[in-house]
Please model this.
Amino acid sequence: MYSADQTRELEKSSLDMLKKTAAGKAIDLKALRAVLRFHEYRYYIMNDPLIADPEYDQLYKYLESKEAEDPALITRDSPTQRVARGLTKEFFSVQHLVPMLSLENSYNQEDLIDWDRKARELTGLKEVEYCVEPKFDGASISLIYEDDLLVRGATRGTGVEGDEITTNIKQIRSVPLAARFSDYGVQQIEIRGEVLLTKENFKKYNDGLALQNLPPLANPRNAAAGSLRIKDPREVSKRNLEAFLYHVSYFSHPDGKVDKMLLTHSGSLEMLWQLGFRSPIKEKKVLKGIDSVIKYCNEFEEGRDALPYEIDGMVIKVNEILLQDRLGMTSHHPRWAIAYKFKARQGTSKLVDVEFQVGRTGSITPVAKIEPVHIGGVTVSSVSLFNEDVIREKDLMIGDSVLVERAGDVIPYIVKSLADVRNGNEKKIDFPTNCPVCKTKLERPLEEAVWRCNNFNCPAQVVERIIHFTSKDAMDIRGFGEAIIKKFYDLGFLNDIPGIYQLPFERIRGMEGFGEKSIINLQKSIEASQGQPLHRLIFALGIRYVGETTAKTLAHGVSHLSEYRDKTIDEMKGMDDVGVKVAASIYQFFHNDENIAMLEELERLGLKLQNDKKQKLADGALTGKTFLFTGTLPTLKRSDAEGMAEANGAKLLSGVSSKLDYLVVGEDAGSKLEKAKKINSVKIISEEEFLKLLGK
Ligand code: IVH
Model:
């Protein structure tokens, strides 16, 4: 897409523009848009950004402000035009230029061999050239570009008509708002692709839902499909969707000549890539003969779990468009393409029973016990049903046959019950009215989907809190697993979180299963956990809505955890990631006497409640200034210098950007110095000058 020369040129312009905007000088908006588009491409398509986020923001904000001053300057393909204001009221139906057909499915190599034989018979060729690429497991979309501009995006819908979702499509940063199809003689073009969420983004999204006690989305495919139909485009933007474009379904070329790239399928993928689309250019392979196709499909299936996104098979396409046209289609499918589906990650089983588990916040989770079923190499016998509504929506009954799916790394879930095969002996699932452990009456707040046991001292909750506290992402106490925690609790050795640090080892010693070595190891890992940084402790406390990211923000905001006792909800709301709901929950936690007593006890037992790394910003000579140290300083140790800066009110940054005020350089300073030299506003100083600033 960008040659090495263009890349250098654009990078140079970026640095130039950064300087100019920092110095309050004007820059050309057309060139600026080209620069921003280039950086979006580096970031979203290449995964290899060339400037820091704040620098991109600086340039973007400049463009935004100029366009706001004079809206006549706005162009339709300006990077600012992704941003949508307001909500979508309803989605309108639009007709696809060419109907979106589905593909014929095949499940084994015999099917493929058969299909290839037919293709050879129909074309009279000895060997057909195929293009083989992944079958992306997302939601399909169709885009139309006219005169190089994205004019419409639509869902698949019925295949003939879909929903117009242009605004939402624009939130997908890897979809270019403009692309030079005219370079290929194309005036109007319709392209097809798949919108998806990477496994990582999907997990993040579900983690966020879990924190709010909302049921997770079942799989990335449903998440992608649902995301495209959200009425608030800003919400769509937050999902970090990606789009793979893999098919040109129609194009017009007024001057009659067709660029040769468009004569093959692989060529059109190449063209899309050249124009800045994420087409499966690296994933696809052009192969002759069905044997090598099968081999490639198998290779891909083996590596399936290592991919960052879900695929459910491969698509094999006749590579030459002329041949495709000759093969034509049946009433349902094109004859020139076939899907090869990987082994199913679904299976049927029987719902034997439902258990109700009590979580650490008292939430009651129904868990289906099913007859063990093998799905994609894993035996599944227990499946979360999340909440009462899920049971009702899916119309589940004990004794039902159920369809179970396990997508990649995602936890298994019940797709549906097979109500048609009921025999009348199925039983309704009764949701308990009282806590299955402590018998407290359950409550369900109006705005929530979950029933709760509100007894803070409910044994199940206590045990779950301890389990969470010791878990890997929290205090990471190795060798202190669920089973041991439950056992110690039952034996009365462990009643609460501080109890972890007061275990009666003299009584544990000699118990079955506890040799001297395992006791020493347990003692060691408990001791080691006392040195965990504050953010881990905060996360470990299991405050509602406080996940790992928020825990880091909270740790960052204070020099000692007890400071949260004095913070108002409004003060906390100002922090990154912290909304009203989260702030209220933190406030509640720190205004509960039992929690305060627990924190005091933990501190007495040797846990760190102060924040070593980031002392609260002190007031001093450097207040309000940002610093970064690089290279070997002549007299001070780096960490000491940093400490001195912070003690005098400075904030430390981790990288060079226009937000940096001072870069203190020592010997052998490397890339940070080079980068800082390019940003006018960064002052580059020596240790001596640094000490002078401190008045030393
Ligand atoms: S080609 C006329 N290529 O699978 C052929 N489809 O049942 C157009 N899909 O609706 C489709 N990855 O949503 C094609 N590399 C790929 C694909 C792909 C996923 C989806 C697409 C389509 C369905 C076919």
Notes: The mean pLDDT is 91. The radius of gyration is 30 Å.
